[in-house]
Design a protein that fits this description.
This protein has nine helices and four strands, in the order E-H-E-H-E-H-E-H-H-H-H-H-H. It has about 210 residues and is of the alpha/beta class. The chain has two domains: about 130 residues, no CATH class; about 60 residues, no CATH class. Strand 3, helix 3 and strand 4 form a beta-alpha-beta unit. The longest helix is centred in the N-terminal third of the chain and has 20 residues.
């Protein structure tokens, strides 16, 4: 089955969209999907991502589409099984997005609360990427990381790398996608329930 993930990220820049796709692709290669890789479509903003996902459901293609967006806010429901309605329920409550009639529960996936939460989960990757001047004691603990507000996670990453040299600190965009491809998926699966849900879903549909 051909699978394509419509992912939030990359803005309106073709270069950043390419880097976004590459970062996610490398992460999934490291997660064991090298020979059964899904396609990626970096869609920019979250509303555009949802629109493009909906279009993919009605365009007559034979691909199986997944929506992957930031949750933006902590997710209250805790049923993280692939077939649970956790993602659609959250997206309806937060964004008033209605689950398409022909979409399954597992076609909605969340980065809780944002992609930076995935990055924050792998302290060693952060230190290796930014160097020994990283303020490692400022990094957030892994316990309940997905319950942290996205602004706290992003601000903490910026602060922890602020002494790493001019132009070396964490910033969304090129640097974030480079780091994404270096993360250890086993650490992410152990500490991030929504990342684990995504991987479990892909393992089921990419057999």
């Amino acid at each position: 089955m051909r699978v394509r993930i419509y992912v939030e990220g990359g803005g309106d820049s073709k270069e950043l969209q390419a880097r976004c796709r590459e970062g996610f692709r490398k992460l999934l290669i490291n997660s064991g999907f090298k020979d059964r890789m899904p396609g990626f479509r970096a869609c920019g903003g979250r509303n555009k991502t949802f629109d493009m996902f909906q279009t993919s459901l009605i365009d007559g293609s034979r691909e199986y589409s997944l929506l992957l967006v930031d949750s933006e806010d902590p997710v209250i429901d805790q049923d993280l099984s692939p077939d649970s309605s956790i993602a659609w329920n959250h997206l309806f409550q937060r964004d008033a997005w209605i689950k398409p009639r022909n979409a399954s529960n597992n076609q909605a996936q969340l980065m809780a609360t944002c992609m930076e939460s995935w990055i924050m989960a792998d302290h060693q990757a952060i230190i290796s990427f930014f160097g020994q001047r990283t303020l490692r004691n400022s990094l957030l603990p892994l316990l309940n990381l997905e319950s942290r507000h996205r602004k706290e996670v992003q601000a903490t990453l910026e602060h922890a790398t602020s002494d790493c040299g001019r132009g070396r600190e964490y910033k969304k965009g090129k640097r974030s996608f480079q780091l994404l491809g270096r993360l250890d998926p086993y650490i992410l699966k152990a500490n991030l329930g929504h990342f684990n849900r995504l991987i479990t879903t892909l393992e089921q549909i990419l057999r």
